[in-house]
Amino acid sequence: MAAEASHGAQIAAACASCHDPGGRGHAIPPITSLDEQTIIKFMHNYRASESSSHVMHAVALSLSEEEIAAVARHLAANVRHRGRP
């Protein structure tokens, strides 16, 4: 479980290069307030080209289902730790 959490954190660090961890980005939507299932749903939509971002389509294709789940859990856990629902 610790290895999965670490891997989720590593992937999330790459996400933070575009998605401002403080949620202040205006051009790129923030991901810091999303729950686990929403993140997974969005990633599946990007993978299936149901959303219009070429960059996120490539990112979603590059991640396995396990990696998507790990980063979603990591991001959602950080939201809970900051006291958000």
TrEMBL record:
The keyword Heme applies. Pfam families: Cytochrome_CBB3. Keywords: Electron transport, Heme, Iron, Metal-binding, Transport. SUPFAM superfamilies: Cytochrome c. InterPro entries: Cyt_c-like_dom (IPR009056), Cyt_c-like_dom_sf (IPR036909), Cytochrome_c_Oxidase_Subunit (IPR050597). Residues 3-79 form the Cytochrome c domain. One of its GO terms (molecular function) is electron transfer activity. This is Cytochrome c domain-containing protein.
